[in-house]
Design brief:
The structure is a homodimer of 599-residue chains.
Chain A lengths: L6 H11 L16 H19 L3 H6 L3 E3 L2 E3 L3 H11 L18 H14 L1 H20 L2 H12 L3 E6 L15 E4 L5 E12 L8 E10 L9 E7 L1 E4 L2 E4 L2 E6 L10 E6 L6 E4 L6 H35 L24 H33 L2 H37 L1 H4 L5 H8 L9 H12 L6 H19 L3 H30 L1 H6 L1 H30 L3 H22 L1 H11 L3 H4 L6
Parallel strand pairs in A: 3-6, 4-6
Antiparallel strand pairs in A: 1-2, 4-5, 5-11, 5-12, 6-7, 7-12, 8-9, 10-11
C-alpha cells in the first residue's frame, strides 16, 4: 500500500514553519507539548491505516441506500463512528470542562487531514458533528448544551448543518422552511424540506441532530429573517426519545464521495416536528457562519487531502512503472526507464506536490490563526481573526479548484491504468469534484473575496496580509541564498500586480458594480496563486535553513524537494497571474452583455 | 430532453465556413450536393435521437461483463450495430466499387459528431470498424480485402486496433507480441497479449477482426521491426469459421466510457492463433499510423462531442433554474432570477461554447483537408496533407484536455445537482477524462508537435499554417468592422509570439535536447490556443457577413452568439498565451533536474 500522506511534511509545517509548540505558552494549551502533539498525529495515523483506508474502495462501491425510511451506510461506519467518539476526536479542541482536551485547532486539523487523506467520506461524519456541537455550545442555552453535546461528543449522535433547500441553493435569503412558535418558549413547529444534507440520516449512529436554518413566521424577509434551530431526528422526552417528524425523502446518488450519505429531508410533513431555537431569533445566519467558516476551511483541507493521496498514488506508480527511454538515449535494445525520470511526468508530479503542499501550509496556518484568535487579545487577536476571515475564501477555493486538476494529473501519470477502477486515482478524481460546489461554490467565494472581504473593516485584513507577505519577502532578502533572493523579487513583483489589479477593480466598482464583480472568480484564482506563492516562499526559507542544519540524507532530500517545488510553483504557477492580470484589468463587458438567446 | 448538439452550427461549419459543396466539383464527389449532405445529417440525427441517446445513461450503469469467455455488452448494441451497417455508415466515405457512397470525410465526420454527442460509447463501435477496414483496403492483399471488408462494412464483424501491451503502453517499440512464419506465405502464428483494446470482444457482432501489431521473429529491434496483421477472433476456413486462439482475459472497469467494452486479450495462449500479414513485413507501424491519425482526429471529435452535450445540458439548466438576484437588485421580496443572467454563469457557458465550437471548426477543417488530400494533386494535395499532419496533435489534444475543463464547468453550473446521477453532466465529466489518455497521451502529442511535426519536411507544414492564418487576418483587416480589426490585431500579436517562442525553443534544441522537450506539453497547449483563436477569427468574419445578410431573428441570435464567443475566446483564452510564453522562453531546468528522491 503506498502511503497517502507525508507525516514528515506535517511535522515540517507544525514545528518548523508554524512553530506550533509556542502555543503552549498560553494557559489554554499549557498542558501540551511537542510530544503530546506527536502522539495525536500517531494516533490519527493508526486509525487511518487500520480503520479508514482499508474501506476506501469498498465505501465507494457499496453506496448508501435508503431502506424502510432509513439510510443504510457501510457497516464499517459503526465501528469508525464509535472510535472517533471514544477516542475524543469530536471535541478534542474543546475545554476540559466540556470533556475536551484543549488541543490546538492547528494540531487537530493536521490529524483530521490524515483521516481525510485515508478516506474522505468516512472523515466527514465526525467533522460535521464537531461543527454542529460547536454551534450549540457557542450560542445555545445551557439546557440545549447539556442535552445534546455530550452524546454528540461520544459519537453516538450525528450532527449536521441543514441549510440548502430545493429553491434556495446558493441563495440562503430564499429559504422557506418555517418555524411557528408553540406555547413553550424557545420551542417551534418546523415545516419544510432540506436537500443535500451531508450525513442527514444514517444507521451508524443513534440519533441525528440537525442545526437547521428556518424562518420564524412574521420575521423580516431575506437573510435577516433566518433563525437557527436544533432539530433532532428523535426528540428527547421524559420517557426517553420519540420520533420528531423528520422524514428521509431520499438519498442522493453521486459521482463520488459515495461513502457519506447525502439526504433529502422533510420536516413536519407527517408528524409534528419540533425545533429548539439556538440563541436569539433572526440571528441564525450569523451563528451559522461560525460553522460555515469552519466548514469552508475544512473543505479546503478535504480537497488537499484527496489531492495528497492522489499525488502519493501516482508517485508510487511513477517509481515502479518502466516505460519508454530518455529523450537522449532512445536505443530500443536497452531496457526501458522508470517513468519518474521523464521530465513531463516530473512536471505532473511537481504540479501536484506544489499545489497540495502549498495549500496544506496555508490551511494549517489558518488553524494557527484560529488558535491565536482564541487565546490572544487586542491587536494580535484582531490580526488573527481578520487574516483568517480574509483568506477563508482562498483556503476553501484554491485547493478545491486546483485539486480537480491535480487529481487529473495523477490519473494522467497512470495513463490507461489510471482510468480503470484497478487503481484509486479515478476515485480521487471523482471525489475531488465536489469541493468547488459545496460550502459555497467558487463563484460565491469570488464574490465574497472581491465584493466583501477586501474592503471589510476598512481593508484592514488585506493590510495585515500584505504586511505578512512583506515580512516573508524581507526575511528571504536577508539571506544570502540566490534562489531565495530570486523568489523574493518575483513575489514582490506579484504583490505589485495584486495592488494594480485590485485598485483597477475597486475603481471600477464605483462606476459599474456588475462589471466589477463579473470576473470575481478569476480574481479569486489570481489572489489564490499569489497567496500560495507566499506560502512557498516561507517553505523555501525554512527548507534552506533546514539544509544548512542537517546531515541526514533523508532530510536533505526532503528539503531539496521543498526548494525545488517552490521554484516549480514560481516558474509554472505564479506566471499564470500575468494572463489573469491582463484579463482582470481589461474590463471588457463580454459576459455581462451576453444575451441568453445568443447561446 | 435538451438537445445535445446544434445542427445550425454544423450547417454553419459545413456550408458557410468550409463551403463543403465545392467538393462536388471533384469527380469523386460529383454525385453529391448540399441536399444529399443535409440528408446525411438528418439521418444521423434520427438514429442519434431514437437509438443512441435513449441508452446513454443505461449503458453507463449496466457496464459490459465478461461471462463464459465473452464480453456481454448492453443488449441494445445489437440493433445499433446492425443499423450502422445496414445504413452504410461504416463505409460511407469509401468508393462505389467498395459498396461505399463516396461521401466526403468532412460530412461523415459531422454525422459521426452527432452520434458521439448522443452516446459516446455506442459511437465507438462503428468508428473502429471503419478504421480497421480502411487499413485492410489500403494495405492488404486482394484476398484479405475480399474476405474481411464486406462483413465489416455490414456491421456484422467488429474491427479493432490492437497495439498496447502490458509492458508497452506509450512505448510501441517495446511490444513483444510475436509472429512466427508458417509454411503458408503471409500466415503467421501469433503469441502475446494486448491490453486496453476498445471493442476487443463483445457479443453484439458475429466476429472481431483485430488489426494487430506484432514482431516477426528475427526482425529488427524497436519500431522498425513491427509488422501489421489481421487477426480474427474466428478465422475463416473452408467449412465456415473456427476459433482462432484469441482469448478474452478480462474486461476493464472504468471511470466512464462504460458502454464500450475494453478488453485484455491473449493470443495463442491455448490454441493456435493465426495472423495474416498486411502489406510488407516490418512496415506495420507506418501502416498503423493511417488508422492512428484518423483515430486521433476522431478522439478530438469525441471529446468535443461530449463537451458539446455537456454544454447544452448546462445551458438548458441555466435557462430553467431560478436562483439569486442581479448584483444590482438584491431585494429579497422580489422573485429570483434565472441563473443564465448571472455574469459568472454566462462566463462558464461562454467558456464551454468557445472551446467546443472552436474545436469543432478545427476538426471539420481537418476533415476537409483529408478530402482535399484525396481528390487534389500537386501543391494543393501537399498543403492539405501537411496541414492535417501538423495539426493532428492539436486536433487530438486541445479538445481532449479542454473538454475535461468544459465538462467541469457544466457540472459547476448545475451545482449540487450536477454532482448527482440525476443529471447527465457528471457522466460527461467522467467520459471526457479518457481522451487525454488514449490514442497517444497529451505528453506524446506534445513531443510529436514540438519534436517532430514543426520541423518535418523542412518546416513546410508550419509555413503553410502561418500562411493560412495570415490570410484570415488579412481578410479580417479588409472589413470595416472594428471588432474584426481588433481581433485580427490580437491574433497578429499572438502569431509573433508563436514565432518568438518557437525560435527560442528550436535554438535550445541544439544545446539541450531534454530541456528543449521538457515542456512540450505546454507548447502544445500554447500552440493549440492560437490555432483555436484562428478558427474563432474565421467564424467571426463569417458571422459578421451573416449578420449583414439576414433578417431572421434566429439567425441574428446565432451570429451575435458567434461574434460574442469569438470575443470571449480572445479576452479569456487567448490571453493565456502570455503566461505560457513566459514559461516557455525562460528555460529553467526545474523538471529536468528534479530527482526522484526529492518527491
Amino acid at each position: 500500500m503506498p502511503s497517502f500522506f507525508s507525516k514528515r511534511d506535517l511535522h515540517f509545517n507544525l514545528y518548523e514553519l508554524l512553530k506550533v509548540e509556542q502555543l503552549t505558552s498560553y494557559d489554554y494549551f499549557q498542558d501540551h507539548d511537542r510530544q503530546s502533539f506527536d502522539m495525536v498525529l500517531d494516533a490519527a495515523e493508526q486509525i487511518a491505516n487500520k480503520m479508514l483506508h482499508p474501506l476506501l474502495t469498498e465505501m465507494d462501491r457499496k453506496e448508501p441506500q435508503l431502506m424502510d425510511g432509513t439510510i443504510r451506510v457501510h457497516e464499517g461506519m459503526k465501528a469508525i463512528t464509535k472510535r472517533f467518539g471514544e477516542d475524543g476526536w469530536i471535541n478534542a479542541t474543546f475545554s476540559y470542562d466540556e470533556g475536551g482536551q484543549q488541543l490546538p485547532v492547528t494540531v487537530q486539523n493536521a490529524a483530521a487531514f490524515i483521516f481525510q487523506a485515508a478516506n474522505y467520506s468516512a472523515s466527514v461524519y465526525p467533522f460535521l458533528t464537531t461543527g454542529a456541537a460547536n454551534l450549540i455550545r457557542s450560542f445555545g442555552s445551557k439546557e440545549l448544551i447539556e442535552q445534546y453535546t455530550p452524546l454528540m461528543y461520544s459519537g453516538r449522535w450525528q450532527g449536521t448543518m441543514a441549510l440548502t433547500e430545493p429553491n434556495a441553493g446558493s441563495s440562503l435569503s430564499d429559504i422557506s422552511t418555517a418555524a411557528e412558535p408553540t406555547s413553550e418558549e424557545g420551542v417551534y413547529k418546523i415545516t419544510g424540506q432540506k436537500i443535500f444534507i451531508s450525513c442527514g440520516d444514517h444507521d451508524a449512529c443513534e440519533n441525528i441532530v440537525h442545526l437547521l436554518l428556518a424562518k420564524i413566521k412574521g420575521g423580516p424577509a431575506g437573510t435577516k429573517g433566518i433563525s437557527l434551530f436544533v432539530v433532532p431526528k428523535k426528540r428527547i422526552t421524559e420517557n426517553g426519545h420519540t420520533n420528531n417528524g423528520v422524514t428521509t425523502a431520499g438519498v442522493y446518488h453521486k459521482m463520488g464521495y459515495k461513502g457519506a450519505p447525502i439526504a433529502h429531508l422533510m420536516f413536519g410533513s407527517d408528524e409534528t416536528c419540533l425545533g429548539y431555537l439556538v440563541g436569539e431569533p433572526h440571528k441564525g445566519l450569523t451563528y451559522m457562519f461560525q460553522m460555515m467558516n469552519e466548514a469552508r476551511v475544512g473543505v479546503g483541507m478535504n480537497a488537499t487531502a484527496i489531492g495528497t493521496a492522489a499525488y502519493y498514488a501516482s508517485l508510487a506508480y511513477a517509481k515502479e512503472r518502466p516505460q519508454g527511454r530518455p529523450i537522449t538515449a532512445k536505443d530500443p535494445t536497452q531496457p526501458q526507464t522508470l517513468i519518474v525520470h521523464h521530465a513531463d511526468v516530473k512536471r505532473m508530479l511537481l504540479f501536484q506536490k506544489s499545489v497540495v503542499e502549498g495549500a496544506l501550509s496555508l490551511l494549517l496556518q489558518c488553524g494557527l490563526w484560529a488558535d491565536l484568535a482564541h487565546v490572544t487579545e487586542g491587536e494580535a487577536k484582531e490580526r488573527a481573526e481578520l487574516l483568517l476571515d480574509l483568506l477563508t475564501p482562498v483556503a476553501k477555493s484554491y485547493p478545491s479548484e486546483m485539486c480537480c486538476q491535480t487529481t487529473s494529473a495523477a490519473v494522467q501519470i497512470l495513463g490507461g491504468a489510471g482510468y480503470t477502477t484497478d487503481f484509486p486515482v479515478e476515485q480521487y478524481y471523482r471525489e475531488a469534484r465536489i469541493h468547488p460546489i459545496h460550502e459555497g461554490t467558487t463563484g460565491i467565494h469570488g464574490l465574497d473575496l472581491l465584493g466583501r472581504k477586501l474592503t471589510l473593516h476598512g481593508g484592514k485584513g488585506l493590510q495585515y496580509l500584505m504586511e505578512e507577505i512583506k515580512n516573508t519577502i524581507a526575511e528571504a532578502k536577508q539571506s544570502d541564498q540566490p534562489q531565495l533572493l530570486d523568489l523574493a523579487a518575483r513575489l514582490e513583483g506579484a504583490l505589485e500586480r495584486v495592488q494594480t489589479v485590485t485598485t483597477s477593480l475597486l475603481n471600477l466598482a464605483k462606476q459599474d458594480k456588475e462589471l466589477f464583480l463579473a470576473d470575481a472568480t478569476l480574481y479569486l484564482d489570481f489572489f489564490g496563486i499569489v497567496t500560495i506563492a507566499w506560502q512557498w516562499l516561507k517553505q523555501a526559507i525554512q527548507a534552506q535553513k533546514g539544509l544548512m542544519m542537517t546531515n541526514s540524507e533523508e532530510n536533505r532530500n526532503f528539503y531539496q524537494g521543498k526548494v525545488a517545488t517552490a521554484n516549480y510553483f514560481f516558474d509554472y504557477e505564479l506566471v499564470k497571474i500575468s494572463s489573469l492580470a491582463l484579463r482582470l484589468t481589461s474590463h471588457t463587458k463580454g459576459t455581462v452583455e451576453m444575451q441568453p438567446d445568443w447561446f
